[in-house]
Amino acid sequence: MKHSLHALGAGGVLVLAAAMNFALYPDALAAVVSGERPIIGFVPAEPSGTTLSTEEPRVLNEDEVRLLAATVWGEARSEGEGGMRAVAHVMVNRIGPRFGEDLSTVILSPKQFSVWNRNDPNRRIVQNLARDPSSIATDPEWIVAERVSREVLSGQSIDPTGGALFYHTRGVRPRWARIGQGRQTLGQHIFYADVPDPGVRDTPALINVTQFLAQALPGNERRQTASQRRGPRAGRVNGVIQYAPASAARQELPSETASTVDVNAAATPTINGGPVARPLPVDTVTPTGVSASAP
User: How far is Cα 172 from Cα 126, in angstroms, rounded to an integer?
Assistant: First the structure.
């Protein structure tokens, strides 16, 4: 009984202290009833708006923007924005001593991205898009590819691959895939953080995108240029087509130079520049050596 009264007295003192506290600070009572806990910190609830970014905006090279957008469009346009963004980051991640010191070298070096292989049906399309995308400027997939390329090149995009350097579609399995490291699947592509090189690789020579596209003429223009350089066709020798000098192009034919020339007349045979005398028939020679008139 003595201990019970003592405990009751202590509890009464606590209740009385709490009542006095809530009476002096009604906000505390409201906080206890609502169950909310105040957050104490040193970060202001509203930004001051006086802090300015000191980072200068990057000036983008429009040739590189078109090149990256065309390559991304050719490689992953069926994958939507996420797939195109992942592929674009792989290309930018490769810039360095291993794959090339600039974007054009990374993309245009031989056997790096399939759309730039000579036997790929998309090569002609991506060439034209990298040179002038006005033909599909309003295409929704191209709009996304160009926007993603600008964001990646300007550093305003988050890399969904985490720094991957290699990828391939799920429908193929290249030989290097078995030693690939950091494998992850995004959509229809499989990405790898790295694929170790068997030896030391030299840094590829720099490729100027403007010069590359200027030299990569369409097939019809290339054939026409070669034909003009060789000159007109001049027949066949042993089944091989022969071409006249380029200076002989568009010259007048003998039948067009003079109307008095009989182009069908037989040519007079010559030896060492002189005409060959036509021998007389044997039966027209007399014993005295005087030729008789032919019948």
Answer: 22
Residues whose CB is less than 8 angstroms from the CB of residue 65 and which lie 6 or more positions away in sequence, other chains included: 146, 149, 150, 153
Is the sign of the CA dihedral 237, 243, 249, 250 positive or negative?
positive
DSSP letters for 23-75: HH-HHHHHHHHHT------SS-SS--S-----PPPPPPPHHHHHHHHHHHHHH
List beta partners, residue 236: 241
Which residues does residue 191 pair with via DSSP β-bridges, in sequence order?
Answer: 167, 184
Quick one: tokens of 205?
């020579």
Q: Taking 60 as the threshold, does the pLDDT of residue 261 lie above it?
A: no
- What's the CA gap between 116 and 268, in Å, rounded? 60
DSSP secondary structure letter of residue 194: B
Cα of 274 vs its chain's centroid, Å: 67
pTM here is 0.57
Q: What is the DSSP letter of 129?
A: H
In the chain the beta strands, taken as DSSP E runs, fall at 166-169, 184-186, 189-192, 233-237, 240-243, 270-271, 274-275
Each residue's pLDDT tens digit, 156-191: 999 999 999 999 999 999 999 999 999 999 999 999
Tokens of 142: 């191209």
Record the tokens describing residue 7, joined without a space: 């405990």
- Burial per residue of 22-35, b for 16 or more beta-carbon CB atoms within 10 angstroms, e otherwise: eeeeeeeeeeeeee
